[in-house]
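Weekly puzzle thread! Below is a chain. First person to post its structure in token form gets bragging rights.
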Amino acid sequence: MVRQKTKLLLEEFIGKLPESHSNLFMEIAQYAISKGYTPKRTKSKNFTLDYSKSKVKKTILRMVLNDDTIDENIPGIRLKFYASRTYSDIFKKGVQTVIEEFDGKYTGCYGCGRCKGELEGYTYVYEDGKKVFRCGSELIPIRHISKDNVEEIKALINNQDKFFMSRLEDN
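Winning reply:
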């Protein structure tokens, strides 16, 4: 059962969204909550909800009322999904954009020590075969989502959650 505080916060956020986004954001939010991720309002000028699970101490999803990473003034989501090896073009484009927005400066492993064994992140492969690794500690902005992406977003959240939970079991 969703706590009253969570319900009110979610209703406030969804109520500020354009009608074109409210149902799909609600469906994604409810799915993340069903997996044990609780929305918390971040301390930023933009109305933003971070979804994290106290067990894993990681944010899996961020919903932003006005996504300033997009030229348009529209809502956006940022997602952690590196546990999935395959995903559609909209998610590949998100990884590519993050790699290229700083001219490839923030790629590779940062050596932070968070990964246990295999590197945890995204490998983007360009058409010429060049592979670039992007650390998975950051959320990836997914631009221009639609209802067509909701089921895949849920699957990505599910896979990432299973990965996080398996890491707890390994300890």
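Puzzle host: Confirmed. Bonus trivia for everyone else. The longest helix spans residues 150-170.
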